[in-house]
Amino acid sequence: MAYADSPKYTLLYHPGIPGRAEFIRLAFEATGTPYTDLANSASDGYATVRKACIDPDALSSLGDNPPVFAPPALQVKGEGKGGGDFLISQTSNILSYLGPRLGLAGEDEADKLWVGQVVSTALDLNNEVHDTHHPIAIADYYENQKDEALKKTVDFRKNRLPKFFGYFERMLKWNEKQQGERKREGVYLLGSQLTMADLVVWQVLDGLFFAFPEEMKARTEEFGLLLGDFYGSVKGEKGLKGYLESERRMKYSMGIFRHYPELDRQS
Ligand SMILES: N[C@@H](CCC(=O)N[C@@H](CS)C(=O)NCC(=O)O)C(=O)O
């Protein structure tokens, strides 16, 4: 596709895994926003991602943009300071940039900040999930840190999961009260329509269902509002449903959400 006809947004990330880029994909997919997923769509796409986001010696990125520490990054056509492309990184930063532009940040300034607050909390949980299988060294194999991973995961499942789930349920209950009789199409964390908060929390829950199926089954009764009503409602959202059933939705494998049966709840 010629540059002039290409979508405004390009996502730069590793190929073949949902990873942290999935939060950004969900925002595009749920709103029907065109985007290019560079490493998954062009044969030399990942070379560009590596140059822009992974080169440890880079003193700039994609033209005049500052260096990036790690993917994901978002390229926005023509929005750079000198008229070139704009490049930003850090998942939470990208999501707060896109939120108001895609209509996923609520209705006013307070909503925008509250959406950011829930998104940041869900991304904290996402990081803790990652640390269950890599508690010691990010660049080393899981097999070399199995004992520590088990200790970390037992605490995570026992203490951290219910703390995060309890918080998200309190958000759902708070929002239900705020909305009163207002008509809503689904179950939301903030306001009466889908926001970035719903998408990010949903994605972490979905990954947890894959990584710890036994733990999640056991928690479903206790957190029915979150793991039943909310999870099911967001999954069925217009725009998202088709994507989740499509081939574009990549499978979990060796990314943040991994299924190691020995780390799951033992019956
Ligand atoms: N806090 C960053 C974390 C970025 C990150 O850890 N990216 C991973 C892929 S999901 C990566 O490639 N990391 C390489 C590294 O940290 O050395 C974000 O949310 O964007």
Automatic annotation (TrEMBL):
CDD domains: GST_C_Sigma_like. One of its GO terms (biological process) is glutathione metabolic process. GO terms for molecular function: glutathione transferase activity. Residues 8-106 form the GST N-terminal domain. PROSITE patterns: GST_CTER (PS50405), GST_NTER (PS50404). InterPro entries: Glutathione-S-Trfase_C-like, Glutathione-S-Trfase_C_sf, Glutathione_S-Trfase_N, GST_C, GST_superfamily, Thioredoxin-like_sf. Residues 108-253 form the GST C-terminal domain. This is GST C-terminal domain-containing protein. The lineage of its organism: Eukaryota, Fungi, Dikarya, Ascomycota, Pezizomycotina.
